[in-house]
Design brief:
heterotrimer, A alpha+beta (204), B mainly alpha (264), C mainly beta (377), A: 204 residues, alpha+beta, Glutaredoxin, 9 strands, globular, C: 377 residues, mainly beta, 2 domains, six-stranded mixed beta sheet, 7 helices, 14% helix
Chain lengths: 204, 264, 377
């Protein structure tokens, strides 16, 4: 019975979130694809990141192949696992040969709690401590800048949790936004074909 | 013995330097501690509950053209000719046009026409960050008035000010005479200011229509009316916006400032 | 038990959000009763455009109405940019207005019922734009303003977010009437499905402030088969009534009076944006002429009891729709954002005063003159 409730809630959440996001036009439209989907590379953000392997990385390290980006936080036990799962669904939907080329960046906006060590445990728990996956943190200012560029909004609530947008973004080989999937549990077909077409172009 | 006497002068020099640096910052404004407290937000999702704000430091005045120019000397990637369009609309630092870097026009005026990205980068390099929306608003509400009539008069002036900025005759920072009880100056009357989360998460759910102002007016007075206008205007910006009336000041975590002080 | 209750509330809550959200789903174009609905999604973008702020063949300055020099329906490419402008609204009273196209009210757009409008608008409120240089480009509006700059318009800047709400359009406001930041542009289509005179205004909160600061105008949608009168009119004018809420600022300029606006106590109530314009430049006609007035009360908050001293309205079409015909009216009551198309026979040579018969408004400026010459026919 409890399960049934959960499924119902789950479906409805997915439905309402997706519907809202699809037809939601914020005043400024950072969430609007026409505005963000411009020919600008996010790799202009010159910042140092640390991943769950405690290695220092920069966004330009990922140049040359598509990248899947999600923003989340570790203490979020309801929505974020779905978001990470969404990234996994997209990642695992492409051929293994493509998986080897592309990378997935899961960026936490909870700098207080999500240290590289915590992120490592998170990756292990999610069974995603695998090549090509990076659970990352950085300076607050850099994380906020990345969020602005992606059109992700988040703010810390008094209970320590975050209100945030749910978004899976595909960057092309130059770091430009190629596809955005807003909401949870969305179909990944378009994002998948976008990755495949970028890869096809690159391998020509 | 020799070694020791050699060290002493160095120590003194450092202290003097530190003191000099403090003086310099004092000329344009210092970082002022804003003690923790709470305030009434006009955001509609906060149902009458006061919003708690932790202690933080805030620049007493907005960042000036001079300060911003100094930042550009060390951060060439933020010079107008180098800024990629992903970080700013055209018009970034447009009021600096036709001037070279050695000749800063209106050095003591607040820098405007800077995007959120630029403001964020400046504060990061200053060892701080942009104030959060709640921090900024909380500080702005810490004003003392002689009487409710004075407060009302001030709020009415505020509304007129939000209708017409005199951005051609902008004053220097600290010139408005408006300050909160801890000495944070010009949060009104000079420019509008960037905050870290200028587009709060609920911005998407707020349909920006006729009723929004009414829904935001928790206190039902001119002061909260002006606040609604400010929230709505601010959340309508793009992080790339470069408005001639928008500048910023930086905030600092208490720990950061304490580290800084103990290092001096 | 408590958790079940909570879950139930959650489910209902989500269900409601789900349903209301889904109802906004994008549809493709379709027709009902010959009216076209389901416009493509609006586009928000940035552009380098720095040309005339008002572009289009059928845009004019009040009280003019540009004639429809084409048969049937067409698509109008229309641009009305948002600019700040210092204007005079009464003798010695100047303020920095927020405008569509540079004047208050903005340009009059004239289209025919069934026409499609591809509308582009750039928020240039942070850009100094001059509207008084003679130009052949743009629109009749630009030429008319250059020839007759009665508001003494001067460039100004006041960067604010703005939006456009055309009452003549039938679309989803959360898409087409979106607020754009300074530097951004928006482009969308709408179809003039209903004949009549319709206001347009900025819908960004505070709507009261944005409209009172000057962001409003009129679209005249002529019925596709005209009004069923059996005659042609001799003269056609557009009259817009609106209120200003201003008080003296620290310098020479006036500023927005928040209290006045809240308490519906305007400093000026005017026709065509200026307290004395319709006396300084009276409307003209001759005795025996049939004159048509497209009268719109753009508010933001007042009503208008529109009357012409010395005349009786021969025919009145409420909201300008040909089915809403009335005869022999002395006064037409117009609520905020309400209009009427009025035909009047000019009785004899002389002066006729257009007036809001709510005399408190009349004494704040809501009057004008129709000057009639001798009968020519």
């Amino acid at each position: 019975m409890k399960k049934l409730y959960l499924i119902v809630i789950f479906l409805l959440t997915a439905m309402s979130v997706s519907a809202q996001h699809n037809h939601n036009h914020s005043a400024d439209n950072t969430l609007n694809t026409t505005e963000v989907n411009s020919e600008h590379s996010l790799y202009h953000l010159d910042a140092e990141w640390t991943d769950h392997r405690n290695e220092t990385i920069s966004l330009t390290d990922f140049k040359g192949a598509p990248v899947i980006v999600v923003m989340f936080y570790g203490n979020c036990t309801e929505v974020c696992p779905i978001l990470i799962q969404d990234a996994w669904r997209l990642y695992s939907s492409v051929d293994e040969s493509v998986q080897e080329e592309i990378n997935v960046l899961a960026v936490s906006f909870d700098t207080e709690n999500d240290t590289p060590e915590v992120l490592r445990k998170y990756a292990e728990y999610e069974q995603l401590d695998i090549p090509g996956w990076y659970f990352m943190t950085a300076d607050d200012a850099d994380i906020r800048t990345l969020a602005m560029m992606l059109g992700v909004q988040y703010s810390k609530k008094s209970d320590g949790h975050f209100a945030h947008s749910n978004l899976v973004t595909v960057l092309d080989e130059k770091g430009r936004i190629a596809q955005r999937v807003e909401g949870l549990n969305q179909p990944m077909d378009d994002a998948k074909s976008k990755i495949e077409s970028i890869m096809a172009k690159l391998n020509k | 013995m020799n070694i020791l006497t050699n060290i002493a002068p160095v120590k003194i020099t450092l202290t003097v330097l530190a003191a000099m640096m403090l003086c310099l910052t004092n000329m344009v404004g210092a970082q002022v501690l804003v003690p923790s407290g709470s305030f009434h937000s006009v955001m509609p999702e906060i149902k009458g509950e006061p919003v708690e704000v932790e202690s933080f430091y805030l620049d007493s005045t907005a960042v000036t053209n001079q300060q911003y120019n100094e930042f550009l000397q060390d951060h060439e990637n933020w010079k107008p000719e180098n800024v990629p369009s992903i970080f700013a609309y055209k018009g970034y630092l447009k009021n600096w046009e036709n001037t070279n870097a050695d000749d800063i026009v209106n050095p003591n005026q607040p820098v405007t026409s800077v995007s959120w990205y630029a403001a964020n980068a400046y504060c990061q390099s200053a060892g701080g960050r942009l104030p959060t929306l709640n921090e900024w608003e909380y500080s702005a509400q810490l004003m003392d008035f002689e009487s409710t009539a004075d407060a009302k008069e001030f709020a009415n002036r505020l509304m007129s000010w939000y209708s017409t900025f005199d951005n051609e005759n902008m004053g220097a920072v600290g010139s408005t005479g408006i300050e909160n009880r801890y000495g944070i100056k010009d949060q009104f009357g000079l420019i509008m200011e960037w905050v870290e989360d200028f587009k709060p998460v609920v911005a998407d759910d707020l349909s920006l229509d006729c009723g929004t102002v009414g829904r935001m007016q928790k206190l039902g007075n001119a002061y909260s009316y002006a606040a609604s206008i400010r929230y709505i205007t601010r959340m309508s910006f793009s992080p790339k916006s470069t408005n001639s009336t928008v500048g910023f000041r930086c905030a600092y975590n208490v720990e950061t400032m304490e580290d800084k002080k103990s290092n001096l | 038990m408590k958790s079940i209750k909570l879950t139930f509330t959650l489910v209902i809550g989500l269900l409601l959000t789900g349903i209301t959200s889904l109802s906004y789903a994008q549809t493709s174009e379709y027709e009902i009763d010959g009216k076209t609905f389901g416009m493509p999604e609006a586009e928000v973008f940035t552009e380098d455009y720095d040309g005339p702020p008002v572009v289009g063949d059928h845009l004019s300055m009040l009280p003019n109405l540009e004639p429809l020099d084409y048969e049937g329906n067409k698509t109008h490419e229309v641009r009305i940019d948002i600019i700040a402008q210092e204007i005079e609204v009464a003798d010695g009273v100047k303020y920095e207005a927020w405008t569509f196209g540079g004047t208050v009210p903005g340009p009059v757009l004239h289209v025919r019922e069934g026409d499609r409008i591809t509308f582009t608008m750039k928020n240039r409120s942070d850009e100094a734009v001059t509207i008084t240089q003679p130009t052949k480009e743009g629109s009749p509006f630009m030429q008319q303003v250059a020839q007759n700059n009665y508001m003494k318009a001067q460039e100004a800047t006041m960067p604010m977010p703005h939006s456009m709400d055309f009452h003549a359009g039938t679309v989803a406001k959360d898409d087409k009437w979106r607020t754009i930041a300074p530097g951004q542009s928006i482009k969308f289509d709408w179809v003039a499905n209903y004949a009549g005179s319709y206001i347009y205004h900025c819908g960004t909160p505070s709507v009261l402030m944005h409209t009172a600061m000057g962001q409003h105008g009129v679209v005249v949608v002529s019925p596709k088969d005209g009004y069923d009168t059996g005659y042609e009119v001799d003269k056609e004018y557009v009259i817009v009534q609106s209120e200003y809420y201003l008080k003296k600022g620290p310098g020479d300029l006036y500023q927005y009076d928040y209290e006045g606006a809240q308490n519906r106590n305007p400093s000026h109530v005017v026709f065509n944006g200026h307290q004395t314009i319709l006396h300084d430049q009276p409307l003209k006609a001759n005795a025996g002429d049939r004159v048509r007035f497209h009268v719109s009360n753009n508010g933001p908050s007042g009503t208008s009891s529109f009357h012409v001293i010395g005349g009786i309205f021969d025919r009145v079409w409420l909201e300008g729709h040909p089915f809403n015909e009335m005869r022999g009216m002395q006064t037409v009551l117009l609520g905020a954002s309400s209009s009427a198309t009025i035909d009047m026979i000019v009785p004899e040579e002389g002066k006729y005063i257009l007036i809001d018969h709510e005399f408190a408004d009349a004494e704040k400026g809501a009057t004008g003159t129709l000057k009639a010459g001798p009968r020519e026919k």
